[in-house]
Specification:
Distance between the termini: 14 Å
Structural class: alpha/beta
Strand order of the largest sheet: 2-7-8-9-10-11-12
Order of helices and strands: HEHHEEEEEHEHHHEHHEHEHEHHEEH
Largest sheet: 7 strands, parallel
Number of strands: 13
CATH architecture: Alpha-Beta Barrel
CATH topology: TIM Barrel
Shape: globular
Radius of gyration: 20 Å
Number of helices: 14
Mean pLDDT: 96
Low-confidence stretches: none
């Protein structure tokens, strides 16, 4: 099987020739370290690093148009203003200052987003290419100060629900453009939880956001694309709701947030392809032996019968990770990811 076939079979809850594996993103510093190179790296080097690790997939976020403000800050197409501070990007002002302003807010044109990276990875490599779009919770929350958004949601402000519906329509159009650019699948990024549970009460999420999420999933499925849902945190209270949607997969499954993949596989493995669950912190603090043992345990729980794609829980390998630990992890998955 090639990369695309392997992931497609697994997303359909089938058993491919081996467990597919991969991360959404690898930061350039780690790409250089894995390849033993110095200086800047680009497209071809990242592709080489992914092949070196035996990855099958990646995920790309449509490029967001930015406008420099002349004082070291910039404004994105959503209307959020940011500045650089000591290498960090800090939000100066949200797109919507308060809930009273939400009714007059106009979403950007999806056609202005840059999809060239999706086209290039699809045309010049044989990886399975996924594209990120926001879900109704995350896509609406990004426009506000997050505390303002949570308080308005808890108060069931009508403006939040109306804006969230517009956000879903926007992301359905963006998903269509990503498909046109060559994406094999869509990931709905929708961080609705933290380590202890959901950011809002489950009943409020079901009332305000679940119907919109269902509409978004069904709209993407109508494009002929698989749909994977991503959220960090403890999703246990909402797993039955997510499993009842037309989703193909669920990514994240943070082990430190109580997301036990063995239990989830038993309860939902027939309905959802599972992706993730490896603890990124272990790649920082562990050594090759402990990392190998942890990967073997994860595969023993998640791989049997198929329907599992290996990745770290967050799906991002950052530049601070020891390259020897990353190599050890992917060697362990190559050795243990057979049926």
């Amino acid at each position: 099987m090639n990369h695309v076939e392997r992931v497609q079979v697994t997303l359909a809850r089938g058993r491919a020739d081996r467990v597919p594996r991969g991360e959404f993103a690898i930061e350039p510093g780690l790409v250089a370290a894995l390849l033993g190179r110095e200086g800047p790296v680009g497209f071809s080097e990242e592709a080489a690093a992914r092949e070196l690790l035996g990855m099958d997939l990646l995920a790309l976020t449509p490029g967001v148009p930015l406008e420099e403000q002349g004082d070291g800050s910039y404004r994105d197409v959503w209307g959020c203003r940011y500045e650089k501070r000591g290498g960090l990007t800090v939000l100066q002002a949200p797109a919507i200052q308060d809930i009273q302003s939400a009714a007059g807010y106009t979403l950007p044109d999806p056609g202005t987003f840059d999809l060239e990276a999706i086209r290039r990875w699809r045309e010049e490599t044989d990886f399975f290419v996924m594209a990120f779009v926001d879900g109704p919770f995350q896509g609406t929350g990004r426009l506000f100060d997050f505390t303002t958004f949570l308080l308005a949601t808890a108060a069931r402000e009508e403006a939040v629900e109306e804006l969230a519906a517009a956000v879903v329509d926007f992301n359905l159009e963006l998903a269509r453009l990503c498909r046109q650019a060559g994406a094999h699948a869509i990931i709905i990024g929708d961080d609705i939880a933290y380590g202890q549970g959901t950011y809002i009460r489950p009943d409020i999420w079901r009332e305000l956001f679940l119907p919109l999420l269902r509409h978004q999933v069904e709209g993407i499925k109508a494009l002929g694309l698989p749909v994977i849902y991503h959220s960090d945190g403890n999703l246990k209270a909402l797993l039955p709701d997510l499993a009842a949607l037309a989703l193909d997969g669920l990514q994240g499954l943070e082990p430190t947030a109580g997301m036990d993949i063995g239990t989830i596989k038993k309860e939902y493995g027939e309905k959802l392809c599972l992706m993730g669950n490896f603890d990124l912190d272990l790649l920082v603090s562990g050594d090759p032996e402990t990392i190998t043992a942890a990967a073997e345990r994860l595969l023993a729980e998640a791989a049997p019968g198929g329907g599992y794609i290996f990745s770290t829980a967050c799906g991002i390998l950052n530049a601070s990770l020891p390259p020897e630990n990353v190599r050890a992890l992917y060697r362990a998955v190559a050795d243990g990811g057979v049926y």
